[in-house]
Amino acid sequence: MKKVQSFILTLFTIINLSGNLFGQGNKILLPPLLTGPQFELTLQNGQYEFFPGHPSATMGVNGPILGPTLLMKKGERVDIKVKNNLGQRTTIHWHGMHVSSVNDGGPHIVIEPGTTWNPKFEVKNRASTCWYHPHLDRFTDQHVSKGIAGFIIVQDDEEAAFDLPRTYGVDDIPLAVQTKAFDSNYDILYDVNSDKTLLVNGVRDAYVDVPAQVVRFRLLDGSSQRTFNFGLEGNLPFYLIATDGGLLDAPVQLKRLPLSPGERGEILVDFTGMEGKTIALMSYAAELSNGIYGAAYPGPSPRMALSGYNPNPMNGRNFTVINFKIGAKTAHAVTSIPAKLAGEKPYTTDGVAHQRAIDFRAKTPGPDQLNGDFYINGVSFDINTINITVDLNDKEIWTITNNTPIAHPFHLHNVGFYILDIDGGLPPAYARGKKDTYLVPGRHSSMRIITKFTDFANDSIPYMYHCHMLKHEDGGMMGSFVVVDRTNSTQPIEEISEGVLLYPNPAKKSYVTVSTRDASEMIQAYSVIDGRGRILVYHIIDDNELSDAYSIPVSQYAPGHYIVKVVTTKDIYEKALVIAK
Questions:
Q1: What are phi and psi of 231, to 5 degrees?
Q2: Which of 76, 111, 130, 490 has its CA at 20 to 30 Å from residue 18's CA atom?
Q3: Rounded-to-integer distance, Cα 127 and Cα 129, Å
Q4: Domains and CATH numbers, the chain
Q5: Are 227 and 258 in contact (CB under 8 A)?
Q6: Which residues touch 157 (CB under 8 Å, ≥6 apart)?
Q7: What pLDDT was estimated at residue 14?
Q8: Mean pLDDT across 132-137
Q9: DSSP secondary-structure letter at 280?
Q10: What DSSP string runs through 517-546?
Q11: Distance separating alpha carbons of residues 84 and 43, to the nearest angstrom
């Protein structure tokens, strides 16, 4: 009997990983391609059969699952109408796009049920692969797991000059790789660690027809938590041509490309001479180090367990992601890998204005900490708090230190970044291009990144930085930052001889900014006191977030006169504040 049970378990594992033991698999869905500059998107509820004969309740964009691919061109001004027919609040974030905070679609830009959000912006990104997904505070995992996600392809003249595949769906193919969990009724689960179903573009046991030539795949790890270690069957080589932020200087030949949630990678695979063959894109998860979601153990050892994580046939084992079925080459085939490309010049460390420390810690230390939530700089996300204030056009270095046992993908909105080092060493070759998301190893590892905050300033609506494991993000592993322009003549700045400025004053926005005249003088705490002398708030700034500027939320206060008391590393100041109607 035990042998029979063992055989059944083995058979179930094989079917679960392949989806179709004796069949030919399922052809992937190719998301419809919408060309700008005008886009109309409808967020809707639906049903979709991931398992034949068993419909699951889903959310999608212009359909029951996922969303169309949006084709944009650098320099054009896009006009997007996003109608919310979900019956509940949500947002849409343009992940990787360099846009103003009011257009970014973070948790502060809520789309109420039955309303239409209409962001309009100039496309400033270089040619690249971005994506869009919901970003509602505490509901991101639910809405993404239910199915809302789509690609954004940005094109520009620089990329067009190279002989690269770009016929959508033929030799230029987007692949959204996700894992999901289902209950016994085939309903999609979220806020769980039991993601045993692998999907590519919403399809189990996926395959795609490709021509016998050079083919470009736009890989997206769209999972809530899982890291994939991509590689071709038989360890065949492939070529990375672009990271999150666009083209590299030259293709990088690889046999493995790890991608964590939110990351993208554009790869070229040369299928020349392989007509009639089938080659699998694998995830070599057996090679992942413990302490990564997707490895054999999510912590450094079996002693540190994660509820629902094991048993799972994908954790710590190699498996097929999708099969490439190779047919005849096309009439205008690309048949060679370019020797050179055109990467963006990385930032140098000259003229860095600030160096900031970002610290990851578990809320509940101990052997069960993986089952709890996590802090960034000692606090959970508060939608009414601005954690960091940066100056427009400042170049900054952020050191992200992960003092938890598990690796976390760090995502920074608005601006991409370059990785200076990881634990003091150079990043791997596949991570030396411009990034907006990258996996920070656990167990006291650190990553230094350099970035520059250009083009957009808004002291009222913030951007986000957070862990892109959506369960962690929803649990509060997120912070916010605003970009302020102190040189903007339209922004009223109080002219005083004291050591701090308070602006705008009178306050007509949701936040006021306090800043010191001396950049070496750091703000440590502030309080807001009403006209009767009552302390309405007293806030101590975490040591890792000390800065010469800080944004204070004031939208909750009635119009009138207040005192803002500011404690700095050198003195204590009191400033009169008027909140206008």
A1: -170, 160
A2: 130
A3: 7
A4: 31-157 (2.60.40.420), 162-344 (2.60.40.420), 354-484 (2.60.40.420), 500-579 (2.60.40.1220)
A5: yes
A6: 74
A7: 40
A8: 97
A9: E
A10: SSTT--EEEEEEE-TTS-EEEEEEPPGGG-
A11: 5
